[in-house]
Amino acid sequence: MESAGERQWMKGYEAARSLCLTRGAETAHRQRPLGTDPAYEAGWDWGLWDYEDANGLPHVDDRGA
């Protein structure tokens, strides 16, 4: 069974990946949610990092993996 933190992390991850796929990584960087749930933000960072990594894009910062 998933904890609330794990669910929030996955929501952030999926939101970032979805935004990257529809609008691009630059947009996802600009729309990074600050001040939200820490697990959601961590998931967002991982989703963005994974998208950049899978597409050979440079990582803008050291957040994520």
Unreliable stretches, pLDDT < 50, 5 or more residues? none
What Rg is obtained from the alpha carbons, in whole angstroms? 11 Å
Q: Percent range for helical residues?
A: 55-70%
Taking the alpha carbons of the first and last residues, their distance comes to 24 Å
Q: So what's the overall shape? A: globular
Helical segment count: 3
- The percent range for strand residues is under 5%
Note the main sheet: none
Determine the mean pLDDT. Answer: 90
**Overall number of strands:** 0
Task: Give the helices and strands as they follow along the chain.
Answer: HHH
| Helix-strand category | mainly alpha
Produce the secondary structure layout.
Layout (H helix, E strand, L loop, with lengths): L3 H20 L1 H6 L7 H17 L11
Helix pairs in contact: 1-3
Commentary on this structure:
- The protein has 65 residues and is mainly alpha-helical.
- The protein has three helices and no strands.
- The protein has helices at 4-23, 25-30, 38-54.
- Helix 1 (4-23) crosses helix 3.
- The radius of gyration is 11 Å and the shape is globular.
- The termini are far apart.
Observed structural traits:
mainly alpha
Q: How is this structure best summarized?
A:
The protein is mainly alpha-helical and 65 residues long. It has 3 helices and no strands.
